[in-house]
Write a structure and sequence with these properties.
The chain has 335 residues and is of the alpha/beta class. It has nine helices and 14 strands. α3 packs parallel to α4 (178-185) and α6 (251-263) packs parallel to α7. The protein is globular and about 50 Å long. Bound molecules: flavin mononucleotide (FMN).
Length: 335
């Protein structure tokens, strides 16, 4: 099934009009904006990423950016003093929790906003291939975001923009705006557009809408809507009550979605994310029909003590990166 590096052209791997350095990318948000403000406290980025060459990934996907800065359910400050740390960690525990075989999160699009990203972070990630994730609550907001990226980033300089219309912790019904977003934002973009699909929405329909609207690729899947309660009190563990489940627990769901998209005749390139940790996970997703695979919470997130092993975990990530960048899965995927 797996063919060798010869399938790659000099620029990397082509998925339709999207050029990646190879078929292994990182999932939205797990590596923040691709760079941290302090090397000691990699706020917003997985500590594991400090020991991994991010410029060698197919692309690094940013956290979802909105037209204005948003606290969401957490915080966008990164200047906490030591004494404020316990309060910060408590808030962190209300937006991200480990659960059996995965994580539930409800950050609620906590981000610095598109202007600050393009000004303060993007210029420091020029050595990386980037996918910029955009999120909004109307077609107008998506148009504004696409226009801002067009104005700041010449065509070809990033791999794509990814439209996040499938997040569970901003409490918004994206089906009410999806068609308008596709009609209005996609044709304006100077960059290839990826649509991120939710396993909780009608993803087959959404994929067909995307193909008609000129979207270049799909990312499957976003987190699965989930709930955790304190068993003693019945209180929700997450500040937003509901959150998104990610990690090992959702790998079979991600595989199902990718496979069903292919069975339904969807031909757009698919970037798969959902519980991927090992080279075999990647192989499974390629067999199911994915063209690229994305590392998310199963590799980048850990318990606090677990982060002490970040350098070791990074060695594993490097191995996966080496293996996937050597391979090309099947002829259809070579766009
Ligand atoms: C802490 C956390 C924050 C996330 N934030 C975003 C986000 O801002 N935008 C987005 O499109 N997806 C976001 N996701 C979803 C991931 O990009 C990914 O689609 C999902 O976690 C499934 O992949 P995984 O199981 O490999 O983590 C987030 C996931 C986690 C765990």
């Amino acid at each position: 099934m797996l063919r060798t590096r010869d399938d790659h052209d000099q620029d990397g791997v082509r998925l339709g009009d999207i050029v990646l350095r190879n078929r292994l990318v990182t999932s939205s948000s797990l590596l923040g904006y691709g760079v941290a403000n302090s090397p000691l406290v990699p706020y917003g980025m997985s500590p594991v990423s400090m020991f991994v060459p991010l410029e060698e990934f197919g692309a690094v996907t940013t956290r979802t950016l909105t037209t204005e800065p948003r606290e969401g359910h957490f915080s966008i400050r990164d200047d906490y003093r030591l004494g404020e740390l316990p309060g910060l960690l408590k808030r962190y525990g209300r937006v991200l929790r480990g659960t059996d075989g995965g994580w539930v999160n409800a950050f609620g699009w906590c981000n610095v906003g598109i202007e600050a990203y393009l000004r303060d972070y993007y210029p420091r990630t020029r050595d990386q291939r980037t996918i910029i994730s955009l999120g909004g609550f109307s077609a107008e907001e998506f148009v504004t975001l696409v226009d801002r990226v067009n104005a700041a980033v010449p065509a070809g300089e990033i791999a794509a923009v990814e439209l996040n219309v499938s997040c569970h912790n901003v409490n918004f019904d994206f089906s009410t705006i999806l068609q308008d977003v596709l009609d209005e934002a996609v044709p304006r973009s100077d960059h290839p557009v990826i649509l991120k699909l939710s396993p909780d929405n009608d993803y087959l329909r959404n994929a067909r809408q995307a193909a008609k609207a000129g979207v270049s690729a799909l990312t499957a899947i976003n987190t699965v809507k989930a709930l955790r309660l304190d068993p003693r009190t019945g209180e929700p563990l997450l500040a937003n009550r509901y959150g998104g489940l990610s990690g090992r627990a959702i790998k079979p769901i991600g595989l199902r979605v990718v496979s069903e998209l292919r069975e339904a005749g969807v031909t757009l390139p698919i970037i798969a994310t959902g519980g991927i940790r090992t080279v075999d996970d990647c192989r499974e997703y390629f067999w199911a029909g994915a063209d690229a695979v994305s590392l998310g919470s199963a590799v980048w997130l850990a318990s606090y003590p677990g982060y002490a092993l970040a350098p070791l975990r990074a060695l594993h990530v490097r191995r996966v990166l080496r293996a996937v960048s050597r391979y090309s899965p099947h002829p259809r995927a070579v766009g």
